[in-house]
Structure formats: C-alpha cells, structure tokens
Design brief:
Blueprint: E1 4-7, H1 19-32, E2 51-61, E3 66-72, E4 78-88, E5 93-99, H2 100-107, E6 111-114, E7 116-121, E8 123-131, E9 134-140, E10 152-162
Length: 163
C-alpha cells in the first residue's frame, strides 16, 4: 500500500490500551478456545476475533479540532482495524489511520504518511490488516482538506482485533 501525504491539526484526545488490558483480553481468548470466521462482502469486524480495542459513540468535533483514538498490540503478529464514521447533518471530516510515528508528527503539525484515509467525507468505512504495533484513528474537522466551517457531529465505530 502506498502511503498518502497529509498535514496535521492542533489538538487530540488520545486513548491507549494498557498492557494489562491487552493481557486480560488475550488470556480470555486463550482459555475460551478457537472459533471459525465467516466471510462478508462488506468490511465488518468479526465477532469471533479477540478484540483489542473498541469504541462506539456519537460526539461533536469542534471546528478546527480533531478526535483521535490510540490503540495497539505487540502480542499478536497482525491487527485487523475496522472503522466506520458518518457525519450527522451538514459538514465533512477527514479520516486517517496512522502509525504512532506519523501520529506524533500529525500532533506536531508536520507532514505525515497515513496507512489509510480520506479527505472531505461525510461518511467513511475501512478495514485494514496491519502489522502488530501502535496506531491511531483520527477524525479531523480541520483544514487538511476543505476549511472547516462549523462544529461537526459524528457517529462512529472503531474495532480492533487480532487478524
């Protein structure tokens, strides 16, 4: 996959999974046994995978700001990252999946390469398989695409599981 270039925003609301939380999830999966995985024509997280991180909600992103969620695991070889976001009402946002090196650059206002992303969308859905590491999903109401004109209300789901 070829990285894409963007520039960052001004603020963040980070959240990261602790090692203890990850070990609890991994231990639970190991003691629960294995399960099969079915296919789907649209990207959706599989309920049978070990969930590393999940977040669902509706919130407002102020004009010129962004909302970000950090997560990661080095205990498994790959992660399956699924996110879906929709703008409620008018407005558009920018959506990015960044590794932590590029997320740090994003928060510092520098040019970054993103794993996946879209500019100026009112809805977006993506599912990516990435090497085990730390990442961030960013929903931006910033001037990375069009200049933001108002606060934007979004409804989103992020789910990260073992690949």
């Amino acid at each position: 996959m070829t990285p894409n270039e963007i520039r960052s925003a001004e603020s963040a609301n980070p959240r990261i999974l602790t090692r203890r939380q990850l070990l609890a999830v991994t231990t639970t999966l190991a003691t629960a046994g294995c399960s099969s995985i079915g296919g789907s024509s649209t990207p959706t997280p599989e309920e049978t995978d070990a969930v590393v991180f999940t977040e669902r909600r509706r919130t407002t992103i102020p004009e010129g700001e962004y909302l970000s969620f950090e997560f990661g695991s080095e205990a498994v070889p790959q992660l399956q990252v699924y996110y879906e976001v929709g703008v409620i009402g008018d407005g558009q946002i920018n959506v990015f999946l960044l590794d932590m090196e590029n997320y740090d650059r994003y928060t510092a206002g520098q040019t970054v390469a993103y794993v996946s992303g879209e500019l100026n969308v009112d809805d977006n859905r993506s599912e990516e398989t990435v090497p085990a590491d730390k990442y961030a999903v960013v929903f931006g109401n910033t001037d990375r695409g069009e200049n933001p004109t108002t606060d934007v209300t979004v409804e989103f789901t992020i789910e990260v599981s073992q690949a």
